[in-house]
Design goal:
By secondary structure, the protein is of the alpha/beta class. The chain is built from 14 helices and 21 strands. The strands form six sheets. A six-stranded parallel sheet has the order 3-20-16-17-18-19. α1 crosses α2 and α5 (163-169) crosses α6 (181-195). The chain starts with a strand and ends with a strand.
Length: 366
């Protein structure tokens, strides 16, 4: 009997599916730092060092909860230090994909774990000034060399969470997103990346991409995340574990990601601990009142649309009454309980898709 494990907060939970039931595990590749990749990053950074002269160097690190990008950051920092660039170096950090409190805590712990000790501050702490009509961190605007490092992943609302999203949502730039948020994000990215020389390193599905930020962002298109799949009745997806699944707010985009992974009236089963609760007080207020603005409101509208057209269930630490009242979905104690529920609806003839983490976007072939 095949057994699947899902990260759940700081632990893991499992689910067994009888072998006679049609099932597919959609796997993704995890990045590994080998000698070849280390040399590729080193050569890239050394070329930047040559071009930087005596000017300031700013690394923008957007933390997604994925440790591989932190390992890349460590090697980039070490390259600068080896070449005597420590005094010129500033690290600006962000974690827009994560819960603000747990994300900051996880970021600090992982930087300490990997011994990354350089002058650093969060994007929200950085002093902002106006440059070509945009309020942005001075360390970003005035550096002679800028490197943006982050993990690239699919995102249920934005299409992808990559370089553009890191720069514009990470707090490096202050943007009013109450109205026309998508348009404003694109405008800010185009303005900054065209006016300021910006380099980037990002990882996706076991591969590392580096170079000019605009070119890399184009290469990491939404189509790269999309995987055609056959018709499935049920999809089980893990939230990625702590800190990614710390709140409902940080994982709710997954519903949009998987809307077209199952048949009409299909079931999306999310396994995410949500130990930190629903999310921010503003997010909860929007959920309960049914109105709002900005990206969070767009996210809530998307989630409610999916719930109207698909069956949605959760395994989480959230009280079942909360899930029912704020989102209109059912809650279960274990993934195995969710499976039992799903098979009662779709029978043992059901076709089941498994994503242990939401790193790919499965879409039914039409």
């Amino acid at each position: 009997m095949p057994e699947y494990w899902f990260k759940y907060g700081v632990t893991e939970v499992s689910m067994e599916i009888p072998g006679e039931i049609a099932q597919k595990n959609l796997e993704f590749k995890r990045g590994e730092m080998d000698e070849k990749l280390w040399e590729k990053i080193r050569d890239f950074v050394y070329d930047l060092i040559k071009d930087s002269g005596s000017g300031r160097i700013t690394i923008l690190y957007d933390h997604s909860g994925d440790e591989f990008s932190t390992i890349i950051l460590k090697h980039v920092v070490e390259c600068f230090i080896e070449e005597g660039g420590a005094e010129k170096l500033t690290l600006l950090t962000s974690h827009w994909r994560l819960d603000p409190t747990s994300g900051k805590d996880h970021l600090q712990k992982i930087l300490k774990k990997h011994g990354i000790r350089v002058r650093s501050l969060t994007a929200s702490e950085a002093e902002k000034s106006s440059y070509f009509g945009l309020s942005m961190a001075r360390e970003l605007a005035e550096a002679s060399t800028r490197i943006l490092i982050t993990t690239s992943e699919p995102h249920g609302l934005l299409g992808k969470a990559s370089l553009k999203e890191a720069l514009t949502l990470g707090g490096y730039v202050e943007i009013d997103l109450d109205e026309n948020p998508f348009e404003k994000l694109n405008e800010a990215w185009d303005e900054i990346s065209s006016r300021l020389p910006l380099h980037a390193i990002t990882a996706f599905n076991g591969e590392v991409y580096l170079g000019n930020a605009r070119e890399v962002d184009k290469e990491i298109s939404e189509e790269r995340f999309t995987i055609p799949v056959e018709d499935f009745d049920i999809v089980f997806v893990g939230g990625g574990g702590y800190p990614k699944d710390h709140t409902l707010q940080s994982v709710i985009h997954i519903l949009g990601l998987l809307e077209n992974a199952v048949i009409d009236e299909g079931l999306i089963a999310v396994i995410a601990e949500c130990k930190g609760g629903v999310g921010s007080s503003l997010f909860l207020k929007m959920l309960l009142q049914g109105n709002g603005s900005g990206l969070d409101w767009e996210l809530i509208k998307l989630a409610k649309k999916v719930v109207e057209n698909r069956r949605v269930v959760f395994t989480s630490a959230l009280p079942k009454s909360i899930l029912r009242n704020v989102l209109g979905v059912r809650g279960f104690d274990t993934p195995q309980d969710m499976l039992t529920y799903a098979l009662r609806i779709y029978s043992r003839e059901a076709r089941i898709l498994i994503l242990e983490e939401p790193r790919l976007k499965p879409v039914r072939s039409r």
